[in-house]
Amino acid sequence: MAQWVGSCDRVLEVNVSRRTTRVFNISKEDRRRYLGGKGLALRYLAHRLRPGTDPLGPDNVLAVFGGVVVGSGAPCSARFSAVTKSPLTQLVASSSCGGPFGIALKTAGYEGLIVLGQASKPMVLEILEDDVRFLDADHLWGRDIPATQEALELGRKDGDLVIGPAGENLVLFANIASGHRFLGRGGFGAVLGSKRIKAIVARGGAFHAVPADPLGFDKACRRATATIHRNRFTGHLYRNAGTASHVDLCQAGAILPIHNFQDGQDPRASQVSGWAMKERFGAKPSTCRPCTILCGHQGTFSDQQTRQWPEYETVGLLGTNLGLFDPETIAVWNAQCGRLGLDTISCGGVLGYVMEASEKGLITSPLRFGSPQGVAEAIDAMAFRKGFGDDMAQGVRRLAEKYGGTSFAMHVKGLELPAYDPRGSWGQGLAYAVANRGGCHLSATLFPLEVFLGFLKPRTPQAKAHFVRFFESLYAGINSLPTCLFTTYAYLLEAPIARLTPKPILAWTMRHLPALAVRLMDLRVFTRLFETMYGEKLSPREFLQAGDRIVVLERLLNAMEGVRRKDDTLPERILAEPRPCDTTARQEKRPWWRRFVAAGCPEPPGPAQNPPLLALDSMLDKYYTLRGYTRNGLPMAKTLRTLKVTVPFQDGFDIVPGRDTPKDKVVQIFFWILGRAMQSASRRDAVFRRQLASWPKGLTVLFKVLPYGPRTALRVDDAGKLRALGDTVSEREADLIIGFKNMDTAFRMLTAQLSTPDAFAQNRLSVVGDLAIAMQLTRLLDRVQCLLYPKWLAQRLVKRVPSMPTLEKWGKRAWLYLVGIPLGL
Ligand code: SF4
Fold first, then answer.
1. CATH number, domain at 197?
2. Is the pLDDT reported for residue 593 higher than 70?
3. C-alpha distances in Å from residue 475, one per residue of 37, 209, 229, 233, 467
4. What is the residue range of 166's domain?
5. Which of 77, 237, 239, 291 most suits a substitution to test ligand 1, by most atoms within 8 Å of the C-beta?
6. Number of domains the chain is built from
7. Residue span of the signal peptide, if any (predicted)?
C-alpha cells in the first residue's frame, strides 16, 4: 500500500453535467490559512460560487473535505466536513459527519472532492484510486438509504454518501447519509438530489497516511486519549448515556424545549434521558470509527428490533418539543427519518410549528402536542412531498410565511432551532443569532459553560460575546483538522491550567476578564496533533486565527447574499415571551424564595414574575466589535485585510471600511455620563422626585442613535428612582425610545452644538412611546444638563435655563461630578 507522509494534498473536482474530472493540489499557503476540512472546502467554494446562485440549480457547488488528522488514528478522527449553498436558508451551509466517507476518500487518494453541475439522469459517482466512474442509478432512485447502501456492495474500506427519498424529492432539509451517520442541517441531501446523484462511493484502501513525526504524534495521541478518559463528559456521560444525557442537565437548567419552546422544563423529562434509555434498551456502542469517546449507542427495543438511540437533539425536537416522552416512539421516528434522509432537528421543528398552528386554528391538521397520532404519516408525507407534506418539506420559515404564526416560527435565518432554549442560556442565544448557517448549536456552544458547568451566568450578557467569538473560531478550526467537537470538553477542561485553578477563580476570570480567559485556554492538544502529523509548526494563535478567517469568509459570502444585522436575530417568542418555568427555575436557585412560596405567601413581585428578556442587541454590538464587523454586521475592509480573506465575485458588493470613529467613542462616553447623572439626580433632586412619582414603575426609556449606533437606557425602579441600565436594553424592552437621527446629531447635541428644540424642529429627534412622558423627560434632561454644563454652554442647549439658587446648584453639581457619576449614587 502506498503512503504519504503528513497529508494527501490532492483534490478531485468532478463536473457531473459534462462527466469530466480534474485533479489539483492544495497549495502550502492555502493549507496554512485554512488547515483542511471545513476551511479548505469553504475556500474552494468561495472561488466557484457566485452570489445569487440557485442552491438547487446546476451552478451550486458541493465540496466535501477531510483533513490532516483524518484517518491518522488520532482519537475521534473519522470526521469530514462539507459545504454548499443551502436551499433552506439560501446561505452557505456547512456540516460535519463521522461516517466512513472521509477516510475512504483519503485512502482512495484525495483529501477533497468538489462536485459541480447537474446530471441529466440519476447516477452513482464511484471514486477509485486511478479512475472516476459515472454509473447509471435508475434502479436505485426511489430506494431508501439502507436499501441503497446494501445495493452499493460497500467493502470494509469503502465509504459512501447516499441520499434517500427526501433528497430525491428536494425536501429542503434532506440529509446525506454516510454509513449510519449524517451530513445534516441545511439540506445537503436536496443539493445532491438536485444534481441527480443518488450516491457517491469512495473505494478506499489504496493509500495510507503516516505522521511526519511518529514519536511526537504517538505522544500527542496518548495525551489526547488520557484527557478524554479523565473528563466527566467524554469519559463518563457520553460514553454511558450518549448525548441524550443532556436531557437531565437541560431540564435542570430550564433550557429543554417543551411544546414548541413554550416552556423549558417538564417533570417527565427524565423518561427520555440517556440513562433511562440505557436501563430500558441496553447500550451497545454504535459510533463513528475510530472514536475514543463513543457517544453513539444502539439498544434492543420492545419489538426485539435493534435501533440506534436517538441523539439529544432528536429527543428534544421529536420528543419533548412535541410534548412526547416515550423514547421508544422517538427512536422509531428517528429510524424513519434516517431511512428517508430527513434532518431530525428541522423535522421536529416543523412538526412543533404545525402542532401549535393547528391548535391556534391557522392550519387544519390532526397533529397535536402530546399525541403521537399522525406523526409517522406526517414524516412520510414530508419525505415524499405528499399533500400538506409538500408545504412541510419547505421548513418552518416558509410555512409561517404562508400560514401565519411568525412569532412562534422557531428558526434563525431559516434554519430550525436546536434543542437548547436561549431564554435560559443567553450566550447560546447570541451564538444562534450570529451563526453563519442559521439556528445552529455547533457553531459555538455556550450552554455547557452557562448551564452545565456554571462558569458563566446564564441570564446576563456579561462576557458572552467574547466566548461566542472564541468558540466559533475554535470550532471552525476543529472542523478543519477535522476531529470531533466533543473533544473540546476534554482538551480544554483537562488542560493543567483549567484543572489546577480553583473553580471560583476560573469562573470569576471568565465572567470579568473574558479577553484574558480566552487567551489562557490551552489548545495545544489540537495543534500538536496537526503539527506532528503534518510536520509544520502551528501555534495556538495561528490555529485560532485560521478559525477567525473561516468564520469571516463564511460571513462575507453570506453578506454578499444580503445578510445584515437584521438577520442576526432570534424568533420573536425567544425575545418577547417569558415562560412558565422562568419563575420556577429562578425560585429553585434561591432557597429563601422556595421557603417564602411554601409558606403560602404570594410570589414576591420583581424579576421572578418579570424575567429579564434576552439582551441581544448589546451582545451583538460587542460581538461585532470583537469580530471586526460594522454595526450592521458587515466584515470591515481592515478585518479582511488582516485575515487575508479574499473572494473573487464581489461585483456590486461594497466592503465597508468603517470602524468605531472618534465620534462614536465620544457619544458612548457622553451616554454613560448622562445615564449616571440622571440616576444620581433622581435620588437627590426634588423636581425629579415629584416628576417620577407620576411615572409608572418599571417604565424603561431608551436613548438610541439610529439605526445601529450607541444606546443607553434608564428604568424607573420600585422606589420611583431612575436606574441607569447602560446599553443592555433592546428596543422590545423599552416603553419610550428617544432616537437621534444619526451619529452626527447625537454628537452635536451632546457637545452643545445643537439644542434640543432645534433638533426637534429639524426632525433630528424621534419619539416612540408616550409623548407626554417624553416632554417631561426632556425637562428633566434640561435640568441635568444645566447641572453638568456651565451656564454659557447650557444656554445653547435648552430653551430656558431652570432657575436654581447658586449654593444649591454648586452643591448638586459637585455631588454629581465627585460622587453621583463616578459611583452611581
Ligand atoms: S464522540 Fe460521538 S460524534 Fe464524536 S466521533 Fe465519537 S461517535 Fe462520533
1. 3.60.9.10
2. no
3. 12, 24, 21, 18, 12
4. 2-210
5. 291
6. 2
7. none
